[in-house]
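Supplementary notes (optional reading)

For those who missed the lab, this is the record we used. Protein: DegT/DnrJ/EryC1/StrS family aminotransferase. Length: 336 residues.
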Amino acid sequence: METKAVAEVVQSGHWAGGERVASLEESLAGLFSARGAVAIGSGVGALRLALMGLGVRAGTPVVVPGYSCVALANAVLALGARPVPVDCAVGEVNPNPSEIVAKAQQVEAFLAVVVHTFGQPVDLAPLKNAGLIVVEDCSHGMPWNQDGTPRPLEGDAAVLSFYATKLIGGGEGGAVVTNDTDVLESVLDLRDYTDKAAMGVRLNDKMNDLEAALAQCQLSRLPSLVEARAERAARYRKRLSEMVPSKAGTSLPPEYPGRIWYRYTVRLPSFDLDRVMAQMLALGVQTARPVSLWVDRADCPEAHRTESEILSLPLYPTLGVVEQDTVVSALRQILS
Protein backbone atom coordinates (compact mmCIF):
# COMPACT_ATOMS: atom_id res chain seq x y z
CA MET A 1 0.00 0.00 0.00
CA GLU A 2 2.76 2.44 1.00
CA THR A 3 4.88 1.52 -2.03
CA LYS A 4 2.01 2.23 -4.41
CA ALA A 5 1.14 5.52 -2.72
CA VAL A 6 4.70 6.85 -2.87
CA ALA A 7 5.13 5.71 -6.46
CA GLU A 8 1.97 7.58 -7.45
CA VAL A 9 3.37 10.77 -5.90
CA VAL A 10 6.69 10.36 -7.73
CA GLN A 11 4.93 9.71 -11.02
CA SER A 12 2.67 12.74 -10.54
CA GLY A 13 5.64 15.09 -10.46
CA HIS A 14 4.01 17.05 -7.63
CA TRP A 15 6.17 16.23 -4.62
CA ALA A 16 5.60 19.16 -2.26
CA GLY A 17 2.61 21.08 -1.01
CA GLY A 18 0.15 19.08 -3.08
CA GLU A 19 -3.06 17.19 -2.60
CA ARG A 20 -1.46 14.45 -0.48
CA VAL A 21 -0.61 16.96 2.23
CA ALA A 22 -4.11 18.45 2.07
CA SER A 23 -5.67 14.98 2.24
CA LEU A 24 -3.60 14.05 5.29
CA GLU A 25 -4.62 17.26 7.04
CA GLU A 26 -8.28 16.53 6.38
CA SER A 27 -7.93 12.97 7.68
CA LEU A 28 -6.14 14.10 10.85
CA ALA A 29 -8.83 16.64 11.60
CA GLY A 30 -11.40 13.88 11.17
CA LEU A 31 -9.47 11.50 13.40
CA PHE A 32 -9.53 13.99 16.28
CA SER A 33 -12.99 15.39 15.44
CA ALA A 34 -11.23 18.76 15.29
CA ARG A 35 -11.69 21.91 13.28
CA GLY A 36 -8.45 21.53 11.38
CA ALA A 37 -4.91 20.20 11.13
CA VAL A 38 -1.68 21.50 9.64
CA ALA A 39 1.00 19.11 8.35
CA ILE A 40 4.52 20.06 9.41
CA GLY A 41 7.98 18.87 8.42
CA SER A 42 8.78 17.31 11.82
CA GLY A 43 7.29 16.58 15.22
CA VAL A 44 9.54 19.07 16.99
CA GLY A 45 8.56 21.67 14.41
CA ALA A 46 4.89 20.94 15.05
CA LEU A 47 5.35 21.49 18.79
CA ARG A 48 7.33 24.69 18.27
CA LEU A 49 4.69 26.18 15.99
CA ALA A 50 1.81 25.04 18.21
CA LEU A 51 3.45 26.73 21.21
CA MET A 52 3.89 29.95 19.23
CA GLY A 53 0.28 29.86 18.08
CA LEU A 54 -0.87 29.45 21.67
CA GLY A 55 1.07 32.48 22.89
CA VAL A 56 4.45 31.17 24.07
CA ARG A 57 7.15 33.78 23.70
CA ALA A 58 10.71 34.41 24.93
CA GLY A 59 10.86 33.92 28.68
CA THR A 60 7.54 32.06 28.94
CA PRO A 61 7.66 29.12 31.39
CA VAL A 62 6.29 25.96 29.78
CA VAL A 63 5.61 22.90 31.95
CA VAL A 64 6.78 19.63 30.37
CA PRO A 65 7.22 16.06 31.64
CA GLY A 66 10.70 15.38 33.01
CA TYR A 67 10.78 11.85 31.63
CA SER A 68 10.54 12.84 27.97
CA CYS A 69 12.40 13.21 24.72
CA VAL A 70 14.73 16.19 24.45
CA ALA A 71 12.67 17.37 21.45
CA LEU A 72 10.15 18.82 23.91
CA ALA A 73 12.79 20.94 25.60
CA ASN A 74 14.28 21.93 22.23
CA ALA A 75 10.94 23.19 20.91
CA VAL A 76 10.51 25.37 23.98
CA LEU A 77 14.12 26.61 23.97
CA ALA A 78 13.91 27.46 20.25
CA LEU A 79 11.43 30.17 21.17
CA GLY A 80 13.60 31.51 23.99
CA ALA A 81 11.04 30.12 26.42
CA ARG A 82 11.82 28.10 29.56
CA PRO A 83 11.04 24.37 29.88
CA VAL A 84 9.98 23.52 33.44
CA PRO A 85 10.13 19.74 34.03
CA VAL A 86 7.76 17.80 36.27
CA ASP A 87 8.98 14.52 37.72
CA CYS A 88 7.10 11.33 36.92
CA ALA A 89 5.09 9.60 39.62
CA VAL A 90 6.73 6.75 41.52
CA GLY A 91 6.61 3.60 39.40
CA GLU A 92 5.06 5.47 36.46
CA VAL A 93 6.32 7.08 33.26
CA ASN A 94 3.99 10.11 33.43
CA PRO A 95 3.64 12.80 36.10
CA ASN A 96 0.54 12.92 38.27
CA PRO A 97 -1.83 15.55 36.81
CA SER A 98 -2.00 17.21 40.24
CA GLU A 99 1.79 17.65 40.16
CA ILE A 100 1.58 19.26 36.72
CA VAL A 101 -0.97 21.75 38.04
CA ALA A 102 1.09 22.44 41.16
CA LYS A 103 4.26 23.07 39.13
CA ALA A 104 2.41 25.37 36.73
CA GLN A 105 1.07 27.41 39.64
CA GLN A 106 4.50 27.52 41.25
CA VAL A 107 6.23 28.99 38.18
CA GLU A 108 3.16 30.94 36.96
CA ALA A 109 2.92 28.99 33.71
CA PHE A 110 -0.27 29.18 31.64
CA LEU A 111 0.55 26.21 29.40
CA ALA A 112 1.58 22.59 29.88
CA VAL A 113 2.72 19.97 27.38
CA VAL A 114 1.65 16.42 28.21
CA VAL A 115 2.86 13.23 26.56
CA HIS A 116 0.86 10.00 26.48
CA THR A 117 4.17 8.25 27.12
CA PHE A 118 4.51 4.85 25.44
CA GLY A 119 0.75 5.09 24.75
CA GLN A 120 -0.22 5.45 28.42
CA PRO A 121 -2.99 8.08 28.61
CA VAL A 122 -2.81 11.18 30.79
CA ASP A 123 -6.00 12.51 32.42
CA LEU A 124 -6.32 16.09 31.17
CA ALA A 125 -9.39 17.04 33.23
CA PRO A 126 -7.44 18.34 36.28
CA LEU A 127 -5.28 20.50 34.02
CA LYS A 128 -8.25 21.96 32.15
CA ASN A 129 -10.15 22.49 35.41
CA ALA A 130 -7.18 24.50 36.69
CA GLY A 131 -7.39 26.74 33.62
CA LEU A 132 -4.21 25.53 31.93
CA ILE A 133 -3.77 25.57 28.18
CA VAL A 134 -2.83 22.00 27.24
CA VAL A 135 -0.82 20.72 24.30
CA GLU A 136 -1.07 16.94 23.90
CA ASP A 137 1.88 15.15 22.37
CA CYS A 138 0.14 12.23 20.66
CA SER A 139 3.16 10.75 18.90
CA HIS A 140 3.08 7.67 21.19
CA GLY A 141 -0.65 7.46 21.66
CA MET A 142 -3.84 9.46 21.75
CA PRO A 143 -7.15 9.41 23.62
CA TRP A 144 -8.57 6.04 22.62
CA ASN A 145 -11.82 4.26 23.46
CA GLN A 146 -11.89 0.64 24.55
CA ASP A 147 -13.88 -0.22 21.42
CA GLY A 148 -10.87 0.68 19.29
CA THR A 149 -11.95 4.14 18.19
CA PRO A 150 -10.31 7.52 18.90
CA ARG A 151 -11.89 10.10 21.19
CA PRO A 152 -12.23 13.74 20.13
CA LEU A 153 -9.42 16.19 20.83
CA GLU A 154 -9.30 17.04 24.53
CA GLY A 155 -6.43 19.53 24.70
CA ASP A 156 -6.19 22.98 23.17
CA ALA A 157 -3.94 21.47 20.52
CA ALA A 158 -2.42 18.10 19.72
CA VAL A 159 0.93 17.54 18.05
CA LEU A 160 2.17 14.41 16.33
CA SER A 161 5.44 13.11 14.98
CA PHE A 162 5.44 10.83 11.94
CA TYR A 163 9.04 9.71 12.36
CA ALA A 164 9.61 6.18 11.08
CA THR A 165 9.28 4.50 14.50
CA LYS A 166 6.26 6.44 15.74
CA LEU A 167 2.68 5.22 16.03
CA ILE A 168 1.94 6.70 12.60
CA GLY A 169 5.10 6.38 10.52
CA GLY A 170 5.86 8.60 7.55
CA GLY A 171 9.63 8.56 7.61
CA GLU A 172 9.59 12.12 8.91
CA GLY A 173 6.98 14.82 9.43
CA GLY A 174 4.48 15.94 12.02
CA ALA A 175 1.23 17.82 12.47
CA VAL A 176 -0.69 20.25 14.64
CA VAL A 177 -4.38 19.56 15.30
CA THR A 178 -6.65 22.08 17.00
CA ASN A 179 -10.14 23.55 17.25
CA ASP A 180 -8.73 27.08 17.57
CA THR A 181 -8.98 28.97 14.28
CA ASP A 182 -6.36 31.52 15.36
CA VAL A 183 -3.86 28.75 16.11
CA LEU A 184 -4.55 27.09 12.76
CA GLU A 185 -3.97 30.35 10.90
CA SER A 186 -0.81 31.08 12.89
CA VAL A 187 0.72 27.65 12.24
CA LEU A 188 -0.19 27.82 8.54
CA ASP A 189 1.54 31.18 8.27
CA LEU A 190 4.63 30.21 10.26
CA ARG A 191 5.40 26.89 8.54
CA ASP A 192 6.56 28.59 5.32
CA TYR A 193 8.81 31.63 4.79
CA THR A 194 8.21 31.98 1.04
CA ASP A 195 7.43 35.57 -0.08
CA LYS A 196 7.19 36.77 3.51
CA ALA A 197 9.15 39.24 5.60
CA ALA A 198 12.34 38.08 7.34
CA MET A 199 11.50 36.49 10.69
CA GLY A 200 13.77 34.29 12.79
CA VAL A 201 11.03 31.88 13.82
CA ARG A 202 9.56 31.44 10.33
CA LEU A 203 11.58 28.52 9.00
CA ASN A 204 11.04 25.77 6.45
CA ASP A 205 8.52 23.58 8.31
CA LYS A 206 6.58 22.26 5.31
CA MET A 207 5.83 18.57 4.83
CA ASN A 208 6.32 17.03 1.40
CA ASP A 209 3.82 14.82 -0.40
CA LEU A 210 5.99 11.69 -0.19
CA GLU A 211 5.90 11.81 3.61
CA ALA A 212 2.22 12.68 3.57
CA ALA A 213 1.44 9.67 1.37
CA LEU A 214 3.21 7.33 3.80
CA ALA A 215 1.51 8.85 6.84
CA GLN A 216 -1.89 8.71 5.11
CA CYS A 217 -1.49 4.98 4.49
CA GLN A 218 -0.63 4.37 8.14
CA LEU A 219 -3.46 6.58 9.31
CA SER A 220 -6.00 4.72 7.17
CA ARG A 221 -5.05 1.50 8.98
CA LEU A 222 -4.60 3.00 12.44
CA PRO A 223 -7.33 0.98 14.25
CA SER A 224 -5.95 -2.30 12.90
CA LEU A 225 -2.36 -1.24 13.71
CA VAL A 226 -3.38 -0.37 17.27
CA GLU A 227 -5.15 -3.72 17.58
CA ALA A 228 -2.08 -5.57 16.29
CA ARG A 229 0.09 -3.83 18.86
CA ALA A 230 -2.37 -4.74 21.62
CA GLU A 231 -2.32 -8.40 20.57
CA ARG A 232 1.45 -8.50 20.79
CA ALA A 233 1.48 -6.70 24.11
CA ALA A 234 -1.01 -9.25 25.49
CA ARG A 235 1.24 -12.04 24.31
CA TYR A 236 4.21 -10.47 26.06
CA ARG A 237 2.21 -10.18 29.26
CA LYS A 238 1.11 -13.82 29.06
CA ARG A 239 4.64 -15.09 28.39
CA LEU A 240 6.39 -12.79 30.87
CA SER A 241 3.87 -12.55 33.73
CA GLU A 242 5.27 -15.55 35.58
CA MET A 243 8.93 -14.89 34.84
CA VAL A 244 9.42 -11.13 35.34
CA PRO A 245 7.65 -10.47 38.67
CA SER A 246 9.54 -13.37 40.24
CA LYS A 247 12.76 -11.34 40.09
CA ALA A 248 13.49 -8.73 42.76
CA GLY A 249 11.47 -5.58 42.06
CA THR A 250 10.88 -6.34 38.39
CA SER A 251 7.51 -5.50 36.85
CA LEU A 252 5.55 -5.38 33.62
CA PRO A 253 3.90 -2.19 32.32
CA PRO A 254 0.51 -1.30 33.84
CA GLU A 255 -2.68 -1.68 31.82
CA TYR A 256 -5.04 1.30 31.62
CA PRO A 257 -8.38 1.75 29.84
CA GLY A 258 -7.73 3.31 26.47
CA ARG A 259 -4.04 2.48 26.48
CA ILE A 260 -2.24 2.21 23.14
CA TRP A 261 0.75 -0.12 23.14
CA TYR A 262 3.34 2.02 21.39
CA ARG A 263 6.13 0.45 23.46
CA TYR A 264 6.33 -2.59 25.72
CA THR A 265 8.66 -1.89 28.61
CA VAL A 266 9.91 -4.04 31.45
CA ARG A 267 11.15 -2.50 34.70
CA LEU A 268 14.36 -4.14 35.95
CA PRO A 269 15.59 -2.27 39.04
CA SER A 270 17.96 -5.02 40.19
CA PHE A 271 19.84 -5.32 36.90
CA ASP A 272 22.50 -3.31 35.06
CA LEU A 273 20.44 -2.15 32.09
CA ASP A 274 23.42 -1.58 29.79
CA ARG A 275 24.65 -5.09 30.50
CA VAL A 276 21.20 -6.58 29.86
CA MET A 277 20.97 -4.70 26.55
CA ALA A 278 24.39 -5.97 25.48
CA GLN A 279 23.45 -9.53 26.41
CA MET A 280 20.15 -9.28 24.54
CA LEU A 281 21.97 -7.98 21.47
CA ALA A 282 24.39 -10.90 21.65
CA LEU A 283 21.35 -13.19 21.53
CA GLY A 284 20.04 -11.39 18.44
CA VAL A 285 17.53 -9.02 20.07
CA GLN A 286 17.70 -5.21 19.82
CA THR A 287 16.37 -3.49 22.95
CA ALA A 288 16.63 0.12 24.09
CA ARG A 289 16.48 2.70 26.81
CA PRO A 290 13.42 4.43 25.37
CA VAL A 291 14.22 7.90 26.73
CA SER A 292 17.54 9.76 27.08
CA LEU A 293 17.06 12.33 29.80
CA TRP A 294 17.86 16.02 29.50
CA VAL A 295 16.78 17.00 33.05
CA ASP A 296 18.95 17.25 36.16
CA ARG A 297 18.74 14.40 38.64
CA ALA A 298 18.05 16.86 41.46
CA ASP A 299 14.95 18.19 39.66
CA CYS A 300 13.56 14.81 38.57
CA PRO A 301 15.02 11.96 40.64
CA GLU A 302 12.19 9.56 39.78
CA ALA A 303 12.67 10.18 36.06
CA HIS A 304 16.34 9.27 36.43
CA ARG A 305 15.40 6.14 38.35
CA THR A 306 12.95 5.23 35.60
CA GLU A 307 15.56 5.76 32.89
CA SER A 308 17.96 3.41 34.69
CA GLU A 309 15.33 0.67 35.15
CA ILE A 310 13.12 0.55 32.04
CA LEU A 311 13.99 -1.70 29.12
CA SER A 312 11.99 -1.40 25.90
CA LEU A 313 11.35 -4.68 24.06
CA PRO A 314 10.66 -4.91 20.32
CA LEU A 315 7.00 -4.10 19.62
CA TYR A 316 5.54 -3.29 16.21
CA PRO A 317 2.46 -4.41 14.27
CA THR A 318 4.32 -6.92 12.10
CA LEU A 319 6.27 -8.57 14.94
CA GLY A 320 5.93 -12.30 14.33
CA VAL A 321 5.29 -15.05 16.86
CA VAL A 322 8.70 -16.64 16.29
CA GLU A 323 10.41 -13.28 16.68
CA GLN A 324 8.50 -12.58 19.87
CA ASP A 325 9.39 -16.01 21.24
CA THR A 326 13.04 -15.18 20.55
CA VAL A 327 12.72 -11.99 22.61
CA VAL A 328 11.07 -13.80 25.53
CA SER A 329 13.58 -16.65 25.49
CA ALA A 330 16.52 -14.23 25.45
CA LEU A 331 15.12 -12.24 28.37
CA ARG A 332 14.39 -15.41 30.32
CA GLN A 333 17.95 -16.62 29.81
CA ILE A 334 19.42 -13.32 31.02
CA LEU A 335 17.17 -12.83 34.04
CA SER A 336 17.76 -16.38 35.21
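If you only remember one thing from this example: The mean pLDDT is 94.
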